[in-house]
Structure formats: C-alpha cells, structure tokens
C-alpha cells in the first residue's frame, strides 16, 4: 500500500502544467462563436464526444463526400512574432475549403486541432474566432475540435494548428485528372500574398534583415502585415461554376507552385505551357527573390507568385468564364495552356 498523501503537498495536473479549469473556461468562450456557424443540420456541436451533422440528402442526386486535412505551416511563426492571432484561423479554413473545391466539393463542416505547451486563453479565442468567422463566410459549420495542452512539448507562447474539412460534391460535377484535354486554357485568379506556403524560405530571407514591424516602402505596409495577409477562399467565385461543361479542372496553388499543382490534373500525355509574363508578381515575391538571391525556378516551385487559383477550361468556355468573373468583380488572366507532352 502506498503511504497516505498529505493534501498540502499533493501533486495535481495543474502542477504538471495542464490546467483543466482554464481549458474549460476557454472552451466556454468559444461555444458562442461556433454556434454562429450552425444551421439546422447541426444536431450537436462542441462539447460532446462527437459532432452530429444531418446530411442534406434532398439537395443531391448522387452525392460524394470530399475530405481534406491541412495546417498553416510556419506562417504560425509570424503570428507569434506579431502577437496577432485573429487571421491564422481564417487561413486554415480557407485553405481547406479551396482544397476540396478543387475536386468539385463544397464544405459541410470543419473540425480543428489546437495544441500548446500552455494554453493562452486570449490567443486561443482569437484563433478559434478566426476559424468561426471563415466557417461562417464559407457556409461551413464549425462542428467540433480538439484542444490539447502539452507542457514541455511546445515553446511557451507558441501553438500548433490544423483542421479537417468534410464537404460534398455531385458525382457528375467532380473534377478529376481525366477531364483535362490538350488545348485547354489556364485562367488564373490573384492571390493575396504567400497564402500559407513558402514561409520557411520567406522568414529565412526577410527576417534576417527586418523585423515584422518594419515599414517597407515597396510593400506599403509593415512586413508582418503583408506576411499575415489572409489566404483567400475562392468558393464564392468557383462554386457557382461547378457542373459547367467547359470547366475541365481547377487547381489550388499551394506548396509546389503553379506547375506542381496544376500538374496534378494532367496525365502522362499532357504538359503545361505557362506564360510567366501574363501577370505581375506581388511586391512581396520580388522582395524575397532579391533579398534572398533566389532563382526563378526555386521561386516558382515554392510560392504561388501571385496566382492562387487556376481554372482549366475548354477554349470556347473563356467568354463565359470571363463574364462570370467580371460580374463577380474578379480580376483574372489567361496564363497558359495544356499541350501534348
């Protein structure tokens, strides 16, 4: 038998660095944020062992579930340096929304994972507030998630963040590799900046010379503000075009750059011809390249270079796409074509 424990000297979970009461208080603070994203399909959200979502069967003739999991990479480091945490959750949701959209799926619900060495309630609420805002903007329910406090595993003041999205697409609207054809055109939509890729190289080059509060004339903002520009969601632009006969593919331009991501849509008989002069890269990319002495090939496979989304379309669909983009107030450029390998 172990000896009796003196209550005055008894160890607790809080002594080990995990404060359950603080975590529960933080969860209470975010429940109202998640509730704003809930429609009638959500039967049970945060707080249970699992979220309950009633699938909207009547809206689809042959539904296919589409899922993706991702994070925001070392863009988190910029959030830590600036002390700003309200945008990083928006990045996460929009990235995941774009990933399933590229296959022809639209979002149903989202689950987040937030882990820290010690939970900072204010930073946590800012992050989840950004997630909830983006879910609301994308018509996606924030159904649940996991909050982990792991002392000794993360640096103090830092956290990790990832998310899983579940969406749905009509089977005959799905965009797969076999749909792209020789002669198809590439139409690009602008990004807002780095989105969520290439931050390790960006930080290595830029933060050696400036800090995140540096006001740089070529950027017309502080370096931190530009690096934290929110990753766009393209759902409201591309979603209404799903099912168009002239739409053969879509690509979300993330790690691997434009050629790497559009290349996912091609079979061995096809290749891309990209016109790199068809648009002007954003100033942040020119700055990274010049300060870091990075060659063109490395820039193009690491960053989106100012193009965050690409439509792959039949040539006769170009007027229809351009009309839809003009109506949406969206800028675009024809940036290349699909050729025989």
How would you portray this structure in words?
There is one protein chain. With 341 residues, the chain is α+β, with helices and mostly antiparallel strands. It has two domains: 18-173, PurM-like, N-terminal domain (60s Ribosomal Protein L30, Chain: A, 2-Layer Sandwich), CATH 3.30.1330; 177-340, Phosphoribosyl-aminoimidazole Synthetase, Chain A, domain 2 (Alpha-Beta Complex). It has eleven helices and 13 strands. The protein has helices spanning 20-35, 75-82, 88-101, 121-137, 199-206, 223-227, 235-238, 257-262, 283-292, 296-302, 318-327; strands at residues 42-44, 52-53, 63-71, 106-116, 141-149, 159-170, 185-190, 215-216, 221-222, 247-252, 270-274, 307-313, 333-340. A five-stranded antiparallel sheet has the order 10-12-7-13-11. Helix 1 (20-35) packs parallel to helix 4 (121-137), helix 3 (88-101) packs parallel to helix 4 (121-137) and helix 5 (199-206) crosses helix 9 (283-292). The model has no long low-confidence stretch (mean pLDDT 92).
Secondary structure elements and pairings:
Elements lengths: L19 H16 L6 E3 L7 E2 L9 E9 L3 H8 L5 H14 L4 E11 L4 H17 L3 E9 L9 E12 L14 E6 L8 H8 L8 E2 L4 E2 H5 L7 H4 L8 E6 L4 H6 L7 E5 L8 H10 L3 H7 L4 E7 L4 H10 L5 E8 L1
Helix pairs in contact: 1-4, 3-4, 5-9
């Amino acid at each position: 038998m172990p000896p009796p424990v003196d209550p005055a000297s008894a160890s607790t979970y809080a002594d080990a660095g995990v404060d359950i009461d603080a975590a529960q208080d933080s969860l209470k603070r975010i429940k109202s944020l998640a509730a704003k994203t809930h429609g009638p399909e959500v039967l049970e959200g945060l707080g249970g062992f699992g979220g309950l979502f009633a699938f909207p069967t009547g809206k689809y003739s042959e539904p296919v579930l589409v899922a993706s999991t991702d994070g925001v990479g070392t863009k988190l480091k910029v959030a830590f340096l600036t002390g700003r945490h309200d945008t990083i959750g928006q990045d996460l949701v929009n990235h995941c929304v774009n990933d399933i959209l590229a296959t022809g799926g639209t979002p149903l619900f989202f689950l987040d994972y937030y882990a820290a060495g010690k939970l900072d309630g204010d930073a946590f609420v800012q992050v989840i507030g950004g997630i909830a805002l983006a879910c609301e903007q994308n018509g996606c329910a924030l159904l649940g998630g996991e909050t982990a406090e792991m002392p000794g595993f993360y640096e103090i003041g830092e956290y990790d963040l990832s998310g899983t999205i579940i969406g749905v697409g009509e089977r005959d609207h799905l965009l797969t590799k076999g749909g792209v054809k020789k002669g198809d055109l590439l139409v690009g939509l602008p990004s807002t900046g780095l989105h969520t890729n290439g931050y390790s190289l960006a930080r290595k080059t830029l933060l050696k010379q400036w800090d995140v509060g540096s006001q740089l004339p070529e950027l017309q903002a502080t370096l931190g503000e530009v690096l934290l520009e929110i990753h766009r969601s393209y759902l409201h632009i591309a979603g209404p075009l799903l099912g168009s006969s002239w739409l053969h593919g879509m690509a979300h331009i993330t790690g691997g750059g434009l050629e790497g991501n559009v290349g996912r849509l091609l079979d061995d008989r096809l290749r891309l011809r990209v016109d790199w002069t068809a648009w002007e890269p954003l100033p942040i990319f020119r700055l990274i390249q010049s300060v870091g002495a990075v060659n063109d090939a490395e820039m193009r496979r690491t960053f989106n270079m100012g193009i965050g989304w690409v439509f792959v379309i039949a040539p006769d669909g170009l007027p229809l796409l351009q009309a839809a983009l003009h109506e949406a107030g969206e800028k675009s450029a024809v940036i290349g074509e699909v050729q025989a390998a």
